[in-house]
Every structure is written in C-alpha cells, then in structure tokens.
Amino acid sequence: MSASPADIQADAPSHHLPAVMTGRDAWFLDTEQALEEEMDHFCGPPQPGDRAPWQARADQARLAALCLSGGGIRSATFCLGALQALASRRMLGEFHYLSTVSGGGFAGGWLQTFIRQCGSIAEAERQLGGSGNEIFAKLRRYTNYLTPEVGILSSDTWAGIVLYIRNTILNWLIIFPLLLFVPLALLAYRTALEAARGSTLWLPLVLGSAALFVATFSACILLPSHRPRTGGVTAYASPARVAACIVAPTCVWALALPFTLRALFEQPLPVSGLSLCRLGLAYFAVQVTAYLSGLIWQTAKGHPGLWLYERNVGPWLASSLVSAALISLCTGAFIDWLVGGAASFDAERAEVSQTLTYAAPPALIVIHLLQSVIFIGFRKSAECADLDREWVARVDGQLLLAAMGWTGLCLCCLVLSADALGRHDAQIPALFSALAALATGPAAAFLGKQVFVRAQSLAAKGRMDDLVMMGLSAMAAVFGISLFALMGWWLGRLLGSAYDWWGDCLLPGWALGGAEVGSGCGINPYGMIVILDVAVAAVLAGAVWLFGRVNVNRFSMHGVYRNRLTRGFLGSARARRDADPFTDFDEEDSPRIAELGTEKRLLPVVNMTLNLTDLLHTEWAERKAASFTATPFACGSAVLDRADRARDLPATGGPRGAYIRTSQYAGMETRGDRVSAGRGPLLGGLLTISGAAVSPNWGYHSSRPIAFLMTLFNVRLGAWLPNPAVARRDDLKLAKPRNSVLALLSELGGRSTDVRQAIYLSDGGHFDNLGVYEMLRRRCARIVVIDAGQDEHCTFFDLGSVIRKAEVDGLAKVQMGEMRILARSTIEREGKRAGALGYARGTIAYPGARDAASLIYIKPSFLDDIPAEVRAYGATSPAFPHESTANQWFSESQFESYRALGFHQVSKMFGSQLTTLSDWSVYLDSEIGRRPPDC
Questions:
Q1: Positive or negative CA dihedral for 554, 555, 561, 565?
Q2: Residue 207, Cβ density class (10 Å: 0-12 exposed, 13-18 middle, ≥19 buried)
Q3: How many angstroms from the chain centroid is the CA of residue 760?
Q4: CB 620 within 8 A of CB 655
Q5: Which pairing describes strands 97-101 and 64-68: parallel, antiparallel, or unpaired?
Q6: Of the candidates 805, 927, 778, 924, which has an alpha carbon nearest to the alpha carbon of residue 95?
Q7: From CA 774, how far away is CA 38, in angstroms rounded?
C-alpha cells in the first residue's frame, strides 16, 4: 500500500532517501515495502490513486543491474578492469543496481567510495575513462591487502600473528570454561555416588520414581492419538514440551537410580533377592500407576483414545513387567560380576562408582526403551497407529542419543583420562600422546580453511572431496576425544590437590592449625570433594559471565579482516587520508552504507548469506542458507517473518520478509555509542561479511565437527548480527548479539538458525556467488554479471546454482544461449577454431511479465588476442586466469594482469557506436551468432 508524499517526506531518513513506511513501524519493512522503497528511489513516489504493484512498476522501469561475483582479490582485480572499460564507454550510469558478492564487493566498494570522492558518477566515469594509472596508484600499494609489508619479519606479519593469538585467547576464556562444565559435571556425579554410598537405599529410588512417573504420564497424554481435537485441528504436543515432560524426566530417573544401586554395595553381600525385586517392583508400580493416571485424565477431560487405554492394559502390564524383571536381573548380574567369589569386597577399590557412572544410566534407558518396543509390538491398532509409532520412535531416538552421548563423554572424561593419563607408570608418555592428538585440532582447522577456499572449484566438479572431508571429521573426532580426556585428567588432579590442601572441613586445614586431612570435622571426604566441585563450577560460571560480556564479533578474525580490507580498497579510493603513521589505518576510510546511493544509479546491494545449518526448513536441507542483503535503504532477508507483525496481518503463502531501515540497524558497538547512533553499519564491515569465505557455518558445505575446530581456533570471519525478525528494536541498533555466550556456543556446535535473537552471516557466495539472485527478485530487465569465481574447467557451477534456485523459488526462469566460454586448455589447443568469446547471453522470463529480460554473462578467459603482457604472465602461471582463491597476496604482475584482462575482455565486447545497454545486447547477439573460422 502506498503512502502519501507528505508522509513519505516526513519520515525520510537522514540521507534524504524516500521512505514508504510511516508511524511507529517506520523502522521495519517487509519485502514488498523494501522493494517499493527502491522503486520510489528510481522512479519517484507513485501518483495519488496509483495502486500498481511494485512488480508492474519494475517491469515498466526496465531496471538494469551490474553484478560482480565472488572470488577474492582475483575477482576484485578483474572486476576493476571491467569497471574501467565500462566507464570508458560511459556505461556505468546505465545501471540502477550494483550488486556485489565477496571479492566483487572489494571492487564495488572501491567504486562506491571513488564516486563519493568524485561527487558524481559522471565525474567518476570521466576520471576512470583515462589510463587509470594515477587512480590505481594507491590501490597498487595494497595488492597484498592483508599484509602490505611482506616478509616473515615485517611489522604487518607479526601484527597479524599477535592479533590472532590475542583474539584466540580471548575466545578461549569463554569457550574453555563452558567446555570444562562437561567433565566437571561427570566428576561431580561420580563423586556424589561415592559420597552417598552410606545413605538410605530408598530416597533416590523415590525421587527417580517420581521423575519416571512424570515422563510416563506425559507420554500417555501427549501421544498423538490421545490429543484433543477442536474444529478438526489436533492439539499436538510441541517438541519443546516433549523434551521437557518426557525426555528430561526419564534422564533424571536414569541418573537417580544408580545412587540406590551404589548403596546396595554397602549392604551385606550377597545382596538379598528381596532387595533386587524391590527395584523391579518399584519400576512396575510406577509404570502401572502412570498408565492408570493417564486413563483417569483422559476420562475426566473427555479426550479421544479412551478405548485405546482399555484395550491395551494387557500389553502395557506385560511390557512393564518384562522391563521390571530385567532391571532386577541385570542389577543382580552386575553385582555378581563385580563381587565375584571374593570373601571380602572393597567397593571403593573396585571403582564401583566409576562403573556405575558410565554404565548404569545408559543401561537403564535401554531397558526402559525395551518396554516401549514390546508395548508398541503388541499394542492394539488405532486410527493414528502409524503416527503414534513414529512419535514413540522419535522419543526413543532422543533418549537413545542422550544415552550414547553420556557414555561417550564418560569414556573420554573419566575412563580414558584415568586409564591412559592417570597411570603413574605411563603418565608422561600418555600425556605426550594426548598432546600430539590435540595437534590434530589446529591442523584440521587449517585444512578446513583450505577446503573452504577451494569449495567453489570442488563443487564445480559436481562433488566435494569426500576423502578430505572424512579425514577432517576423523581428525576432529581425535581432537575432541583427546581434549575431553585431558580436561577430565586436569580437573581430577586439580580437585585432588585442592582436597589435599583444604581438607575435609569447611575451613581449610591451614586455618585449623595444620590438622591432618580427615582428622576431625566429620564431613564425608567425598562430600567435601562435591563441595569443591560446586566451588569450581561457581568460578567457571563467573568466568563465563564476565568474559561473555565481550562482543563475540570484536575478537574473532572478522575485525582484523575488516580493517585491512577497508584500508586496502576503500581507503585507497580517497584523495586524502588522515591515517595513523604507525599502523596506516584511518577510521574515516569506510563510509556508512546509508550515506551512499544519493544518485538514482548504481544503488549498492551487498549480498551476504544467512546461515541456516540448524535445519528448521527441511526443504532447504541442501542449501542450509538463504540470501541476506544490505542497501542504503534496508537490511534484511525475504525468508524472515516478524512474528509480532504476522499476528496482525492476514496469512499468506510464505514469509513476508523482515528488513530494518539501514540507519537503524547494526551501527553501534555499544548502547552508549552516540557517534554511530542512527547512522547504520559501515560499508567496510558489510563487505567483510560478504567476503567471509572462511567461517564455521558456510551454507551447504557446513560440517559440525569442523565448525567446532574452526570456532575453537578462531578461524572465523563471519559475524553475528541482530535478527530483523526477532530482536527488539533497541537490540537491532547494535552490531553484536545480545548474548555472546549463546552465539559462541551455537557457532561452536555449527548450529545457526533464523528463530533466535541473533543470526550468523557469512560470505554471500555460500548462497549465491554471482549476486544475481536478488536482482532477479527485483525483476531487473537487463543484468550484466561478471563471474570471476575459480572455475578453470568452465563448469559454470555458480551460474547453474543461481538459475536453479531462482526457478525453484519462483523468482524467474533463466535460459542461457550458446556458451562460447571455454577453458584455457581448450582455447590453447584449438586456437581460433574454438570460437571462444568469454561471454554468453541469456533470457529471463519473470512471472506475469510480458517482455523477456536479458542477461549478459562474462567470465575471465585466456582468449587468443589478449595483450602481450597478460599472455606473458599467463605463461608463468598455468592456472591463470583462475588461480586459487586461497591466494589473497597478489604481486604487482598478478594484479596488473587480471586488471588488464578485465579491461581488454569487456572493451572487446563493445562495437564502435554503442552507448546503451539495449544496443549492447543486440550487438552481442550478433557477435555470438557469428560462427568461428575453420582454421
């Protein structure tokens, strides 16, 4: 719905761009409103009474877009040459949008800063139309933009090393206290079993039985066939309720019953059969009571499924009796196995508590699951029989996963640490072995980085390198096992030393005049260790709270990358800099993106990836990501949906999108940052996120084991920003998540989603490496895309990916014509007969559009007529012009060769009298139609 011109003017942001929303919600826009605002920018506000949708206005306006792809500094330098060629023909002003991704954003950011410096696009074209030697002189200083001063002894190199070490240590101050809670909890549980060995048999049994009653009763009333229906809609239980009411209480029961089992070893041995039978009878009584309680509940509420209760009493009693008998029999067998035929038995020396810790809880859960297996097998059928069986299987799967996780952690933190590292005769060799195993962590993190930067070329072959990924996952597993074993060993020694120093009194031994440990306070020594466990947990919690207040983005490598990218590509476009002479950094190098786009052409669109690795959208199981954009108007994503607005609007077929006005989004470091308030994010920061190829979450190729290592060793270039669909308005202004600990834990586990307060953004190439997807959303009639991604075999993976996604999502159908783009090896082998042009044309059909749109696709090619200096460099590098994206340290010859190739290749595409994009498209069609010579 359109707003009046008066309202638009009243609510205009500080950079005088028009706004279409008014009132209290002026800071928030959905997808339609965000795109309407862009249309108003190009075409002016609609006339009063004009109700034409933005799609019709876009089709009429015949919008044009220039897209610069990802590919690191290789793409940046090639695109710079292409921009120079377009400027020489005064064609830059033909494009409404400048859509950039990753390395293409380096060139796009340089151009935007240069235009701002010149004052207009026309003046920038005039200056770029010359040789460009003076203009690019400053930029050439930063061909090695990460470390301009090269060499192992250079200040830049060692500053980078120090920054990495400092930031990694600051991250560890949050991560390791969190990880230490795991072995500490296991040690505390084992110690609590030993401390409670002389207590009553029945208190933990009663508490555990109460928890089991809650779980079984909840399972009975939450089963799908037992849920109430209203108006044909069934009130199914939510996953959170199932976890809280069934899974968690069952785990509590499995953790409580081992205390009773431990107390049995303090009774006269052998244990009487009556005591063993009581354990099984308690389980049976709880199961029967919970089942009957469910029956009474269903009768009182009048819910469906009452007849099912009555018909399935027999199978329930039988299955519960089998599991009860197994609990008694397995407990007796376990005691006989440990005690054997010994005349005297020392439970402490036999490490009964250790064995119970890692074996009893998972064994109890498995026996409990057997009850559901037998019951489901003999259960009478129901209307929702299949649904019930699937539901029970999913609950059982979660319980089995919990049991396996408990066992695995116990084996690492307790068994392995005690057997391998706790032996005095082999402690030093075992310690060195564990430390050597830990070395697999940084090695896998480094190799994971290499896989990241090679992802595009690997994917272009139609697959990822499975052996590499399997090897990295195996290295991550070895590292994780070694890490938790070392933490368990270290915590055990720490608590033992603390007990030796403190004693078994509430006051330390030295405060009691040097009394010996255990000489007289009457406190159970193991109970004192439990108290020390609690004290250590309090210290760890305090450390997490203290260091968790640190901005999780500030001390990743994102800031380091951002500063160098901004200095190299944005600072070099400025005529005057006030740089610190020691560091060569200037805080004014990066403009705010909200300050750009004052002309009606080259509106910047920075493409990023919204990572969705914690899948809530199963239809995106392959993508694990979505598009996220930033423009001078708004920042957000079309896949988001703000819940507080969705309640007030009619239902639609999908998300409406959630965008925040750029001046009100992610611009402030802290709430007291008055300098940045109301100005929005820095362009350099957005370009850094758009180029954050090395991130623990990276769309389809995300791997949780590798994400754990990359987060732990701070191989992180992405950023956590407020979620436009969830965060409160005050939080949206901050360039950080509200809870850094939760964000870091999510990154550590490779779990990022769109339903929490913060979202994880990374390289736009993790979703669309060409920047075309969002231009198709805007229904651009003329799109020129420069694809400088690493694709030496010309498989066009990125192009195929965006065409497929656009068609699946209903944005457009793109059909490419003859692809006269060939690999270097083919061109060198066949010469002119190959007919390589280095570009191709395609047509775009938008839903409901009358006229077809056009796409011009350009790719770096080793053509037969390239300049001599470019061919000379190519002779030294067989991979040119598709050298590895991992190489971000270009030499002068590399920089100039790619720039000259971009200038030559795009210049060659123009006829003598071309002045518009339409004429250019017609001319290229005629060129493609020409057949190559036979010789």
A1: positive
A2: middle
A3: 5
A4: no
A5: parallel
A6: 778
A7: 13
Cα separation, 92 vs 82, whole angstroms: 11
Distance CA 418, CA 396 (A): 32
**With helix as H, strand as E and coil as C, how does 107-127 read?**
HHHHHHHHHHHHCCHHHHHHH
- Tokens, residue 286: 């709880």
User: How big is the CA angle at 122 (ends 116 and 126), to the nearest 5 degrees?
Assistant: 100
The angle formed by the CA atoms of residues 621, 625 and 629, to the nearest 5 degrees, is 155
Q: Are 225 and 387 in contact (CB under 8 A)?
A: yes
pLDDT one-digit tens code per residue, 53-84: 889 999 999 999 999 999 999 999 999 999 99
Pairing of strands 719-722, 603-611: unpaired
What is the model's pTM?
A: 0.86
| Residue 615 DSSP SS3 | coil
Residue of 594 and 935 predicted with greater confidence:
594
Q: Nearest CA to 601 among 65, 166, 85?
A: 65
Distance CA 226, CA 57 (A): 53
SS3 605: strand
Instruction: With H, G, I as helix, E, B as strand and everything else as coil, classify residue 227.
Output: coil
464's CB contacts (< 8 A; 6+ apart) are 451, 455, 458, 701
Contact at 8 Å (CB) between 531 and 494?
no
DSSP, res 556? S
Residue type, 209: S
Kindly report, residue by residue over 514-535, the tens digit of the pLDDT: 545 444 555 666 677 778 888 8
Give the Cα separation of 317 and 371 in Å (integer): 10
Find out whether 746 and 28 touch, Cβ atoms under 8 Å: no
- Identify which of 361, 492, 344, 324 has the alpha carbon closest to the alpha carbon of residue 417: 492
* CB proximity list for 685: less than 8 A, separation 6 or greater: 562, 590, 719, 735
- What local confidence, expressed as pLDDT, does residue 499 receive? 73
What's the burial of 581, exposed, middle or buried (CB within 10 Å: 0-12/13-18/19+)? exposed
Q: Is residue 395 packed enough to be buried (19+ CB in 10 Å), middle (13-18) or exposed (0-12)?
A: buried
Task: Return the structure tokens found at 32.
Answer: 């339609």
Cα 740 to Cα 736: distance, rounded to the nearest angstrom: 8
Measured CA to CA, the distance from residue 58 to residue 455 in angstroms comes to 35
Q: Letter for the amino acid at 8?
A: I
Q: Give the single-character DSSP code of 238.
A: P
What does DSSP assign to residue 335?
Answer: H
Residues 57 and 43: beta-carbon distance below 8 Å:
yes
**How far lies 6's CA from each of 14, 28, 49, in Å?**
16, 19, 14
Q: Do residues 298 and 366 lie in contact, with contact meaning Cβ atoms separated by under 8 Å? A: no
Length of the chain: 935
What the block records as the tokens of 153 is 């002894």
pLDDT digits (tens, 9 = 90+) for 320-351: 999 999 999 998 888 888 776 555 566 666 57
DSSP 3-state of 775: helix
